[in-house]
């Protein structure tokens, strides 16, 4: 079967995973990471942190953690950063931010359990560290999460988003358009979504090309698999089916469980 994926950072790895499970990979990265060159928000966050004006720091991605601390280290000594963080509750949304913190010799105060959604994050805060009256910095990734920011503000927090990088479409859309045309033509049996932002970018290309309705018709006949609840929420926002969500939000488990379940799902759809 032909399996389409839109993974960017781990395009090579997901290609090999699909091949190991007997599939024919069609991998078209749709995300390009663009650093924020003149990141005034990150610089302002550093000032706030150093003068004790950050009560809670929410870390959403491992790559973002590394980028944020590298920015801080360019302006402040590491011992002074560590000293400032001692009075701050550090909340890590899952294992990747935890691993990034460990590389800097730091530990999370609170860790969000699987499936690591913003709802889970808010639940952890409600249970262990209510944020009313607190100053909360949120390390963002690619795009802002307005639902998370709104939920924090509704609980009485003063929220300070800290964007680290943003997602853009690749400069060359040829491979993406090829993959989408193959899906529309019925030559793809499975689509793997490993990041919620992939859905936005696919829809943007389809809208540019006037092929949204053709695509919607095509995906009703194949298997759409989502890495986890955050991606599934975005898929449903655009009325995509969610046929598979793995038992754990990990790429290897996603590919394995999709391989095990695809035939049954396709038989049912036919």
Mind explaining what this structure looks like?
With 270 residues, the chain is an alpha/beta fold. 49% of the residues lie in helices and 18% in strands. It contains twelve helices and ten strands. It has helices at 11-20, 40-50, 62-73, 78-85, 95-103, 118-128, 146-154, 174-184, 196-209, 212-219, 229-237, 251-269, and strands at residues 2-5, 24-27, 32-35, 56-59, 89-92, 110-111, 135-142, 158-168, 190-193, 223-226. The strands form two sheets. Strands 3-8-7-4-5-6 form a six-stranded mixed β-sheet, with helices on both faces. Helix 5 (95-103) links the parallel strand 5 and strand 6 (110-111). Helix 3 packs parallel to helix 5 and helix 9 (196-209) packs parallel to helix 11. The radius of gyration is 20 Å and the shape is elongated. The model has no long low-confidence stretch (mean pLDDT 94).
Helix content: 40-55%
Roughly how many Å apart are the termini? 16 Å
- Please compute the radius of gyration using only Cα atoms: 20 Å
Low-confidence stretches: none
- Strand order across the biggest sheet? 3-8-7-4-5-6
Tell me about the largest β-sheet: 6 strands, mixed
Number of helices: 12
Classify the secondary structure makeup into a structural class: alpha/beta
Mean of all residue-level pLDDT scores:
94
């Amino acid at each position: 079967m032909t399996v389409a994926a839109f993974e960017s950072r781990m395009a090579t790895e997901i290609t090999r995973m699909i091949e190991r499970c007997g599939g024919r990979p069609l991998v078209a990265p749709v995300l390009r990471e663009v650093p924020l060159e003149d990141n005034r928000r990150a610089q302002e966050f550093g000032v706030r942190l150093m003068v004790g004006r950050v009560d809670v720091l929410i870390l959403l991605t491992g790559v973002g953690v590394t980028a944020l601390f590298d920015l801080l280290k360019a302006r402040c000594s590491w011992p002074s950063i560590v000293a400032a963080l001692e009075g701050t509750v550090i909340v890590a949304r899952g294992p990747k931010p935890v691993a990034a913190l460990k590389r800097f010799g730091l530990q999370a105060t609170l860790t969000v359990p699987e499936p690591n959604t913003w709802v889970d994050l808010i639940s952890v805060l409600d249970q262990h560290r209510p944020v009313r009256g607190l100053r909360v910095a949120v390390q963002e990734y690619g795009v802002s999460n307005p639902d998370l920011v709104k939920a924090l503000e509704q609980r009485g927090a003063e929220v300070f988003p800290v964007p680290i990088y943003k997602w853009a479409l690749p400069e060359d859309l040829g491979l993406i358009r090829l993959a989408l045309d193959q899906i529309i033509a019925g030559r793809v049996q499975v689509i793997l979504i490993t990041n919620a932002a992939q859905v936005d970018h696919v829809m943007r290309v389809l809208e540019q090309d006037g092929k949204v309705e053709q695509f919607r018709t095509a995906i009703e006949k194949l298997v759409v698999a989502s890495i986890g609840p955050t991606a599934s929420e975005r898929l449903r926002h655009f009325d995509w089916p969610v046929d598979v969500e793995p038992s754990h939000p990990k790429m290897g488990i996603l590919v394995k469980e999709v391989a095990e379940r695809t035939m049954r799902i396709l038989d049912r759809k036919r």
